[in-house]
Design a protein that fits this description.
Helix content is about 30%, strand content about 25%. The protein is α/β, with parallel strands linked by helices and about 575 residues long. It has three domains: about 270 residues, Medium-chain alcohol dehydrogenases, catalytic domain (Quinone Oxidoreductase, Chain A, domain 1); about 130 residues, Rossmann fold, CATH 3.40.50; about 110 residues, Rossmann fold. The strands form seven sheets. Strands 4, 6, 7, 10, 11, 26, 27 and 28 form an eight-stranded mixed β-sheet that branches. A six-stranded parallel β-sheet has the order 14-13-12-15-16-18, with helices on both faces. The longest helix is centred in the middle third of the chain and has 17 residues. α1 packs across α19, α5 packs across α15 and α10 packs parallel to α11. β20, α11 and β21 form a beta-alpha-beta unit. About 50% of the residues are buried.
């Protein structure tokens, strides 16, 4: 360990007089910093309930671009006047504690390294570090109750000693990827909720409800068989019977019984009309379920709110038996890629798409066949360079497809690659409803679609919901992450089953933050851009350029130009200026 790196790591140096920062004073790059440069601020002393922290590294995210474009109108900024109360970008952060307030000394200590979980709720209100709370594009700043006292506790994750700075800041985006395969949907009837059971006139099926019917506080019955009425009557729930409703009546019913927020659980018995299911699904509450029980396919595709699948975690469940409760639970509702199966990643060339592909290839029991699609041949070549050796090493088959240059259609390519079986899983990393619909056409009847990229709520797409109850198909989506997701990434990194450093494509010093954000807008680098705020005069540099600019650092890169802790140590030893 070099002398400067040791001093940096151990805080064996005097703090500088100023902390340089990129505050955001409004929408647009011209409002970031002052005159296109970071500003100097005094380094404050923490009060009894605050931490003074050093920002070690920051990953640049496309979410930063959204804030930059929208300014105070961004949903998490609540129409804030940034010219008066600026914020600061940078939510993918690794930091080191420098000073600890008196009331926090039993929990934290100087030199302790942490990662931030930025998706914060306080008293039910959504805030976020790097959005509502000024983030990490600064050298030193204070952290207090806005991060330490949230509905989920302190949103700080202690970092294992063997973790590097860059890979620690990437725990956040990698945690979002992990969250896509962690069950976020509610898979049981809501306790104290409102359940609506919709039957078909003339249906004489003898239904049961083996568990969970005692959960709702209110059960609404529409055209259900007598056996279902008897089941509902045996519970303590308030029963509301509304027979003979048409879809035109549904909104009035929802307003009357749910104040317009929707039903927590909707059960549809023997559905036949895709249009009717489409209209019913409009009235699922946030994190609500729609349970379809049937034995025949619908008469077409169902129009589903793809935005709500992603942002509101609505769930379509189902079975073809007579026990209504059989649709619920983890056993029938998977969220992980099928072991030994096949997966297509739509939009695999961006930084997050790359992470999905890498995770699948490194997953010990991951898919045997991975298909990566992208509309840029350059990005596909980068994917091939990055992941073909990894696929070969782990015994996986990796194929690439560009729909803009191929003579085959996407559907024909996938079907040929899977012997006309279709894929087990479809992961969509681009916010385009048409591509989500197209992905549905190549999915096996019992497959899973993961909507990783979010389209706005109200964006409708046609999908085959018949397969949900006939063959156990899954449609899932996730937004954000928890600190447990970040911890799972770190556990896999420490265990050697995941390499977050493989995602780093470019590095830069503090002054390059604005340029780094522009590079994300342009898609200049095939992966994540990481800023080291404590380093000055380091140009924005792709890892492929390191050999010319910083050969000593380049020598320490891993296989396939992978960023390593050793390269980071040399970077700090060479470029950091000790105050």
């Amino acid at each position: 360990m070099g002398e400067k790196y040791h001093a940096y790591r151990s805080l064996s140096y005097s703090l500088p007089e100023k902390s340089w920062a990129w505050n955001l004073y409004g929408a647009g790059l011209e409002n970031m910093g002052r005159g296109g440069e970071p500003e100097p601020f005094s380094i404050p002393e923490p009060n009894d309930d605050q931490l003074l922290v050093r920002i070690d590294s920051i990953g640049v995210c496309f979410s930063d671009v959204k804030i930059l474009k929208q300014g105070g109108s961004h949903p998490k900024l609540y129409n804030r006047d940034l010219s008066v109360e600026p914020t600061r970008l940078g939510h993918e952060v690794a930091l080191t504690i420098v000073k600890v307030g008196k009331n926090l000394q039993d929990k934290y200590e100087p030199g302790q390294r942490l990662a931030v979980q930025p998706d914060i709720y306080q008293q039910g209100k959504s805030t976020a570090y790097g959005y509502t709370i000024p983030g990490g594009l600064i050298q030193y700043h204070l952290i207090g109750d806005e991060v330490l006292k949230t509905d989920a506790g302190a949103c700080l994750l202690p970092v294992e000693e063997e973790m590097g700075y860059a890979e620690s800041s990437l725990l956040e985006p990698w945690g979002c990827v992990m969250a896509a395969y962690t069950q976020r949907r509610r898979l049981t009837p809501r306790q104290g909720g409102i359940m609506w059971i919709i039957g078909q006139p003339g249906d004489r099926t003898e239904y049961t409800f083996s568990t969970g019917l005692d959960c709702p506080a209110v059960i609404v019955l529409t055209d259900v068989p007598d056996c279902v009425k008897a089941l509902a009557a045996s519970t303590p729930a308030r029963i509301v019977e509304r027979d003979g409703l048409t879809p035109a009546d549904y909104e009035t019913l929802s307003r009357e019984l749910t104040n317009g927020v929707g039903f927590d659980d909707i059960v549809v018995l023997q559905p036949t009309s895709a249009g009717a299911v489409s209209r019913t699904a409009r009235f699922i509450a946030r994190r609500g379920t729609c349970n379809l029980l049937g034995t025949r396919p619908l008469d077409g595709l169902v129009q589903v709110d793809l935005g709500r699948l992603h942002y509101d975690y609505i769930a379509f469940l189902g079975s073809h038996g007579t026990d209504i409760a059989a649709s619920y639970g983890e056993q029938r509702n998977r969220c992980e890629l099928r072991p030994g199966g096949s997966t297509v990643f739509i939009g695999a060339g961006g930084p997050m798409g790359q992470m999905h592909v890498q995770r699948a290839l490194e997953l010990p029991d991951g898919p045997a066949l991975v298909i990566a699609t992208e509309i840029s041949d350059d990005r596909l070549q980068t994917l091939s360079d990055m992941f073909t050796p990894l696929a070969e090493k782990n015994g996986r088959k990796l194929l690439f497809f560009n729909p803009t240059t191929s003579k085959q259609s996407f559907h024909d390519f996938v079907m040929e690659a899977t012997q006309n079986q279709g894929v087990d899983d479809v992961v969509v990393s681009v916010p385009v409803a048409a591509l989500m619909e197209e992905g549905d056409t190549v999915m096996k009847p019992d497959g899973m679609m993961v909507l990783f990229a979010g389209v706005p709520n109200g964006t409708m797409g046609a999908v085959n919901l018949s397969n949900v109850y006939l063959s156990n198909a899954q449609y899932t989506g996730t937004s954000g992450l928890t600190i447990d997701d970040q911890a799972s990434v770190m556990s896999r990194r420490v265990a050697g089953t995941l390499s977050p450093g493989r995602s780093v494509a470019a590095i830069g010093g503090l002054e390059t933050a604005a340029e780094a954000i522009e590079s994300v807008i342009e898609g200049k680098y095939p992966g994540k851009v990481v800023i080291f705020p404590q380093i000055r005069n380091l140009p924005l540099t792709g890892l492929k350029e390191l050999k010319q600019r910083l050969p000593e650092v380049a020598e320490k890169l891993g296989e396939d130009l992978m960023w390593t802790n050793e390269a980071e140590e040399v970077l700090i030893e060479k470029m950091w200026e000790k105050p």
